[in-house]
Amino acid sequence: MSKSKDNMVLFIAQGAYSGRFPKAPGTAGTVIGALLYLLIKDASPLVYGAVCVCLIALGTWAAGRADTILGTKDSPTIVIDEVAGFLVAMMLVPFTWWSVPAVFVLFRFFDILKPWPIDRLQSIPGGPGVMLDDIVAGIYANLLFRLAWVNFGP
Predict the structure, then answer these.
(1) What are the backbone angles phi and psi of residue 76, rounded to the nearest 5°?
(2) Range of 76's domain?
(3) Of 45, 60, 84, 87, which sits most exposed with the smallest number of CB within 10 A?
C-alpha cells in the first residue's frame, strides 16, 4: 500500500487519530463514537442501522489493515471498534441528557471487564477479532440500559 493509503487506514482505524491519545485511548475513541452518535441520533432507525453496519464493515477492514501496517495484534491505538461499539450501544436508545453518559459508562464497563463471551472474541484473528468484542460489549450495554429504562425510566 502507498503511504497515503496507509495514512487513510490509520486515520479510520485510530478513530480520527483519537487512538493516539496517550492515556485511555479506548475512552478517547468512545468519545468519538459519542460525537458521531450526536450527529446521527435523529436519523431513522433504518439509516442509523445502516451507518452501524457500514462502520462495522469499514472498521473490520481498517482494523485488520492497521494491525498489518503497525505490525501488531489489536493495537491499543486502534479504536474504530470503540466508535462502532458505542453506536451499537446507543441503537434505539431514547435520547435524554443522561442516556448518553449512562450508556457511555456501561459500554466502557463491558469493554474493559470483557465478560463471557467477549473475552473469547478477542482471540479471533484480524479485523473481526478487533471489532467483535466491542460490538458485543455494545449489545450488552444496550440491553442493560434498556432493562434499567423499562424498570426505572421516566
Answers:
(1) -60, -20
(2) 3-152
(3) 45
